[in-house]
Task: inverse folding
């Protein structure tokens, strides 16, 4: 698929530069900003696999390192949801000031701790965020007042064999008052490494964003 924009970008926030991969297909339906979990980043093979399917469905994607290499070595930084939220917000602002992406509907895709940050950003930005998808996420790590304030339709996807995370997602799901859905993928563990499970996540994400991101024109 021919791209309208495809580049390595750098976003300055908190006196550091965060590296990201921006790819926008021709005639994009919206932009999906990825919030990676602890120990992961823009090169995550799982999130890149999902992003590829989203681009095939004509969504632009931005995969971003929310932490520097040095910060990612620190457990406190990895689980600092407010830090991740602030940086994800900065990336959202960057998209809103980029000429190609500024007017596109914005969706957030969060994994692990990144899901908590995505939900807090959705709560803070209100209608600027059109939809949220969480893959094997920890939405329970978002503050309760943020969960209750999310207005964007939210899809939580969890592996059927990831029992502890299913319980934590149910806790967060109960706090959400927006349009919401909890999807459990049978036979999948936390990282969705089993055959066909990541493809299921991709299909669910494409369907959710296609349904809930407003159409242009």
Result:
């Amino acid at each position: 698929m021919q791209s309208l924009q495809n580049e390595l970008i750098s976003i300055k926030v908190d006196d550091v530069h965060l590296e990201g991969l921006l790819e926008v297909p021709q005639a994009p339906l919206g932009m999906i900003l990825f919030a990676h979990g602890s120990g992961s980043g823009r090169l995550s093979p799982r999130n890149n696999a999902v992003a590829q399917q989203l681009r095939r469905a004509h969504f632009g994607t931005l995969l971003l390192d929310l932490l520097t290499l040095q910060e990612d070595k620190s457990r406190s930084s990895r689980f600092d949801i407010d830090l991740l939220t602030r940086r994800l917000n900065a990336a959202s602002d960057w998209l809103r000031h980029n000429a190609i992406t500024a007017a596109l509907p914005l969706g957030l895709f969060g994994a692990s701790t990144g899901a908590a940050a995505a939900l807090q950003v959705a709560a803070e930005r209100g209608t600027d965020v059109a939809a949220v998808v969480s893959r094997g996420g920890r939405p329970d790590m978002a503050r309760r007042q943020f969960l209750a304030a999310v207005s964007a339709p939210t899809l939580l996807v969890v592996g059927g064999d990831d029992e502890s995370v299913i319980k934590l997602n149910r806790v967060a799901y109960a706090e959400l008052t927006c349009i919401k859905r909890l999807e459990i993928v049978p036979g999948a563990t936390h990282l969705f490494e089993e055959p066909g499970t990541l493809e299921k996540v991709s299909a669910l994400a494409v369907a959710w964003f296609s349904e809930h991101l407003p159409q242009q024109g």
In short: The longest helix spans residues 81-97.
